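#help-structures

NK: newbie question. if I give both the sequence and a SMILES, will the prediction place the ligand too? trying with zinc ion
OV: yes, paste both and it writes out the complex. here, I ran yours:
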Amino acid sequence: MNLERIKFQTCPNDQEEGILLTDLEEAIPETDSFGNLQYYCPNCSQTFTYCECDSDND
Ligand SMILES: [Zn+2]
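OV: that's the protein plus ligand as structure tokens.
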């Protein structure tokens, strides 16, 4: 898995850049119970999930 490609996502609260949550070795991304990636937004101190089904990239 290429973590660099998915390392940042836009925060839905304030449109700032959220950072992918990973384990301490930055090898395995954190996911919720649905397998969605977890991000932390330093601007609003919130975590949010990102689902690829929301993406328009395909
Ligand atoms: Zn935010």
